Fold:
Amino acid sequence: MASYLIRRFLMLIPTLFGITFVVFIIINLAPGSPIEQKLQQLRFGGGANGQSSTSSGSTAANATVSKEVLEALKKQYGFDKPIHVRYWLWLKNLVQLDFGESYTYEEEVTEVIISKLPVSLQFGITSLILAYLISIPLGVYKAVKDGSGFDHISSFLLFLAYSVPGFMLAIFLIVFLSGGSFLDIFPIGGLYSDFYDEMTFWERIVDRMYHFVLPLICYTIGSFTTLTILMKNSIIEEIRKDYIRTARAKGLTEKVVYLKHALRNALIPIVTGIGGFLSIFFAGSLLLEKIFQLDGMGLLSFNSLLSRDYNVLMGLVFIQSLLMLLGNIISDIAYVLVDPRIDFS
Structure:
């Protein structure tokens, strides 16, 4: 196992290099650039009537500024160098964990990402814990009651919930539960109320919980449904095997058969998602964040893409890729812990 882990960690370097190189080339060759964004701002500030530019806006914008200003902007953003040189400089800074400065926020990229991180952490961690705490027991119970009325009704509700997109569910919940046309139980959006600073400690906790309920449902519903059905099917497959028949022949109770013998082996497919817990640090959904007025990683990625904030985009791509690769390694370790028969060496 140790040699396998060493090989996997050594493979991280070329894999990350390949991912960042491809993404760097794509975003730098895409239409638009931070320079064109800045030229548009200069043109809006000095143009007649403040009218916006057309599809030929970058050409028109170039005509409103001097060549010296254009060259100064290129030097400021590092676009006076060839693309391969810019990528090499980005790699050199990466060794020092320096992702550069955001063109949009005019702050260090790490500070920008950290400022948006709390939203993703709160919803990501909570939704992951809830998904596993509910889906595993529910999946086991559905397997025990396979074919019963409870199994059919719960399966129908699960597939119905899975078929509804998260953003559409968010709209329904706001309309029905947030003062739309029916009940007014939960707030429409945000993380806390306007008078949050005036609340006591316990009032703040309750206020946060009220603001968390609807977004958390939308964040959790997809993974919760998938895990439940996967857990049920995995348990059913296990109880059909010979070792379960042997356990029953020994006179063991159904509770012991399911929870002690079948459950551990049935968890093997489930642990594939354990490594994904690292990705919750950057979990984000653009539509859900827009609907519930949450300033998280989804909005940061989208706004950075629109504004061609290359440094923020590359910082997000690198960190998310690293967490994904580390998560895959953790999933392999979880496999071995659940089933010692698995040997990657």
